[in-house]
Protein: 6-phosphogluconolactonase (Cycloisomerase 2 family)
Organism: Krasilnikovia cinnamomea
Amino acid sequence: MAGGASWARRGRRPVRRPGRTHRGLRAGLALLVVLSLAGLGLLPTSLAAFSATTSGPASSFTARATFGLTQTVGCFSHNGSGGCGTATGIQEGESVVVSPDGDHAYVATSVSNSIAEFSRNASTGALTQLASPNRCVSNAAITNCTTVSGSLDGVYDMAISPDGKHLYAVASRSSTVTAFSRNTSTGVLTALASPNKCLYDSTVSNPGGCTSARSIAGADGIAMSPDGDFVYVAGYSSNSVTVFSRNSTTGVLTQLAGTAGCITNTTVSGCARGYGLGQPYYLRIAPDGTSLYVASYNSDAVAVFQVNTTTGALTQPADPNACLYDSGSTAIANCTSAKGLSGAYNVAIAPNGKTVYVMGYDSNSVAAFTRNTSTGVLTQLASPNACLYASGSTAITGCGSARAITGPTSMTFSDDGLFAFVSAFGANAVAAFRHDNTTGELTQITGTSGCISTTTTGCVTGSGMRYANALTTSPDGRDVYVAGGYSGGGGTGYVAALNLTH
């Protein structure tokens, strides 16, 4: 972890979640990274913007011999530290999303307990926080923000509908899913009216204006079907995945009836029994909508689900393909062992839907799998490409090492799938890789161009990237935004706009 950030661990869980008491928590052509900080101060908790340029057709690895990554606009922090401008409601960014039209970006935060709202300049990638009172929506009063009382305590993830008209946010401490209408012109978020403001777990009190739902305690991951008809929620404390239908006109969510509405890691009355769902964090759905993958921290596993695209219902494949669990962990019935899944934290799926990647936070690794597009079943890549582990951490047999991926938290791709980016909480960094669309192999860009970090040696130096937690690619493929932060480390967060113009 030389040159990277150090962070403590309490038992199995990384202590990067101080607000949640139940968590502690290759085919290589050079990527030329040129950082030119403009000091514009246009990105939050630490929103750093990067632009990148490529030459040659996007379909050709060889033609893309030149690839530029440039930090061209400033960053934000919650207090103006780290050479960044100041933004409101961005302490400990956990998730970042860009609207389908590319005009707005939103950052979910677990310490500010809010969703910060920004307009986006599609030409430069720069962000500007919306004017008062719409700088953010927050769980409690924050100056220049709108209060959505009780349902945004510990916001961890968000999903925007394909038509851009609604945004949904999960909050772990309030055990809620809050629904917002979104003004597609201004980007302003407005909570739905009672009783549809939120869904709350049936074991906790109604925060007001909400409807009860089953098995969403500790809600911290959310995904939406590509057609916008269904929403899936990971419940960290419920050890569950829940399923909701969505009214595309009103935005209202309704849990599926009976056992179709929830799947739990152990037998729970009214829910179906699942495997590999011990304390799930994030979940992601395949581009074709037929498969859902769930990263489960305590199970050290990724759970696999087949999706009925008509009803939204989930079914795990038969033994031994219901999940994959870390080979050094306790075996899970109906599942297969794999490498690099210790502390499974997040999932990423390549744009073509053929490969799936799982971030193993505790093993400092990114595990790689091919995906059967008919069944959703995952098969780990053969040695030496089964996973990547952080240089300086414990080596994993069958895997290769990579720089600046200590504590990997998120992953995203260029729109053509030829490049992949990994955020690393422990390295204060974003690592850059070539991605083979056919084999799924990842090859880190050589030299300092293979990573950008505020602290890690051997990387290009960037601003506003401490404690990187989340990544997303803008719909136009121009920028990648990084959000992050840690209350014990100043609460800064990040957005990096990786301009992938061809």
Remarks:
- The CA atoms of residues 259 and 271 lie 4 Å apart.
- Residues 1-46, 49-66 have pLDDT under 50 and may be disordered.
- The chain has one domain: 9-489.
- Residues 9-489 form a domain with the Methylamine Dehydrogenase; Chain H fold (CATH 2.130.10.10).
